TrEMBL record:
InterPro entries: 6-hairpin_glycosidase_sf, 6hp_glycosidase-like_sf, Glyco_hydro_9, Glyco_hydro_9_His_AS
Classification via Gene3D superfamilies: 1.50.10.10
Signal sequence range: 1-24
UniProt keyword Signal, yes or no: yes
Active-site residues (renumbered): 407
PROSITE patterns with a match to the protein in the record: GH9_2 (PS00592)
Protein name: Endoglucanase
Keywords, comma-separated and alphabetical: Carbohydrate metabolism, Cellulose degradation, Glycosidase, Hydrolase, Polysaccharide degradation, Signal
Length: 484
């Protein structure tokens, strides 16, 4: 009987789609497992005993030492060995949002604990990076020197420069995004670990206060990040953080901040580490749909603006998002899939808000029901997992045809577990230039993806297409849990 049950379970998670006459199996459960495994490959610090990605080793064990602070831990953001605070915080916020909305789905698929562990790896680091109310360490590692080298993180010889924001050098965007991550995580941990949840919330409140009372862009205070993660503004992060703090606390101070907010910038064309307005608009629309706040003023605008973005994704709006002939929502030539996965999460969450309130989405050209929104999000997942003209999975390690030459230092060099001989700064380029598959499979990584013509070149040197980043996979976790 056990084998029969196993076979039935396998059939449940296999969905069949037809691509150019070819039947492809989409195993959402496997993709969900893979997506969470990826975060273990991106870990910095001392790896735990239960580490599942065994080709990685300990790294960055002296991070913060030169500044007299413990900054060991956290995540490398992409294929390099730098810890950038802004994309790391956005990654954790998306992971936490996935648990907040779809914790029960994750639990059913035995992935809730892995999702919480992935969040905590980030939030533990943020707590250490925030030793005082108006002080936040913004990152570790020098981007220029790091990018001049090609080394495993375990072999790093590049400077581990520490960057910070404080009252004299503000960074409202970074402080508020970190606040959002901690506030969202406090909800995710509320039932399972109330003490930890309270600690996260205390830091979130302090960081929001820091962000609002000492305003400025973090990339104006820290010039070295401008070439990598320069911020376009901080109003979006302030609204995003306030939305999460209100949801976590229900306190009037955050409700009033949202209701009186003057920095909203209208309908968005994307949702990303640099622009969180859409996320805030979707999050706040929930209260409008539930009738808890009036569908007018700021609150009405948030809901209307979220709807406009969704209608544009559905190709039923007044300013539709470009869609490739193969069906992919395409936003940018540089790491496009990060925007696609984030948009898919927003679409999925809003669909469920509509469903819970018995409402539909009113687009200029049609009335859209929640199931149609879910179908759009599913189509994007299916495309990423292989239902596309190239018949290629853009999730590494999923299926039989996926990118083999991901732009990633650790994955492209033989594991330190197999060959502990240190790889020097320039020595690693011998591995970089090899026209062979990476020796380590970066399971669960979502690469930048194809161009607007659905073309993809598996080339380690093409960082626009072939580099993966934590935010790419973070947006997909909740969607995979929901449609599984």
């Amino acid at each position: 009987m056990a084998s029969v049950r196993n076979n039935i379970s396998l059939l449940i998670v296999l969905i069949y789609v037809v691509v150019d006459g070819v039947v492809c199996s989409i195993n959402y459960k496997q993709a969900l497992t893979n997506s969470l495994l990826y975060f273990e490959a991106q870990r910095s610090g001392t790896l735990p005993a239960h580490q599942r990605v065994i080709w990685r080793g300990n790294s960055g064990l002296k991070d913060g030492h030169d500044a007299g602070v413990d900054l060991v831990g956290g995540y490398y953001d992409a294929g390099d060995n730098v810890k950038f605070g802004l994309p790391m915080a956005f990654t954790v916020t998306l992971l936490a949002w996935s648990v907040v909305e779809y914790g029960n789905h994750l639990k059913v698929h035995n992935e809730l604990q892995n999702a919480l562990v992935a969040i905590k790896w980030g939030t533990d680091y943020f707590i250490k990076a925030h030793p005082q109310p108006n002080l936040l360490y913004a990152g570790v590692g020098d981007g220029d020197s790091d990018h001049d080298c090609w080394q495993r993180p375990e072999d790093m010889t590049t400077p581990r420069t520490v960057y910070k924001i404080d009252e004299s050098n503000p960074g409202s965007d970074l402080a508020a995004e970190t606040s959002a991550a901690l506030a969202a995580a406090s909800i995710a941990f509320h039932r399972l670990d109330p003490k930890y949840s309270s600690l996260l919330l205390a830091h979130a409140k302090q960081l929001f206060n820091f962000a609002t009372t000492h305003q400025g862009k973090y990339s104006d205070s820290i010039q070295s990040v401008t070439k990598f993660y320069s911020s376009s503004g901080f109003q979006d992060e302030l609204l995003w953080a306030a939305a999460w703090l209100q949801r976590a606390t229900g306190e009037k101070i955050y409700h009033d901040f949202i209701g009186n907010f003057q920095g909203n910038q209208g309908p968005r064309s994307m949702f990303s580490w640099d622009d969180k307005f859409l996320g805030a608009q979707v999050l706040l629309a929930k209260q409008v749909l539930e009738g808890k706040v009036p569908n007018s003023g700021n609150w009405g605008n948030y809901n209307a603006e979220a709807e406009q973005f969704l209608c544009n994704c559905l190709q039923k709006g007044n300013n539709n998002i470009f869609k490739t002939s193969g069906g992919l929502l395409w936003f940018n030539e540089w790491d496009n899939l990060q925007y696609t996965t984030a948009a898919s999460l927003a679409i999925t969450v809003y669909a469920d808000y509509l469903s819970a309130t018995g409402k539909s989405l009113k687009c200029p050209s049609a009335l859209v029901n929640p199931s149609q929104l879910i179908a759009v999000a599913r189509s994007q997942v299916d495309y990423i997992l292989g239902s596309n003209p190239k018949k290629m999975s853009y999730m590494v390690g999923y299926g039989s045809n996926y990118p083999q030459k991901v732009h990633h230092r650790g994955a492209s060099i033989v594991s330190i577990k197999k060959d502990p001989t240190p790889v020097g700064c320039k020595d690693g380029f011998n591995w970089f230039h090899k026209d062979t598959p990476n020796p380590n499979i970066l399971v669960g990584a979502i690469v930048g993806g194809p161009d607007k013509n659905d073309n993809y070149v598996d080339d380690r040197n093409d960082f626009q297409m072939a580099e993966a980043a934590t935010a790419n996979s973070a947006g997909l976790v909740g969607v995979l849990a929901r449609i599984n």
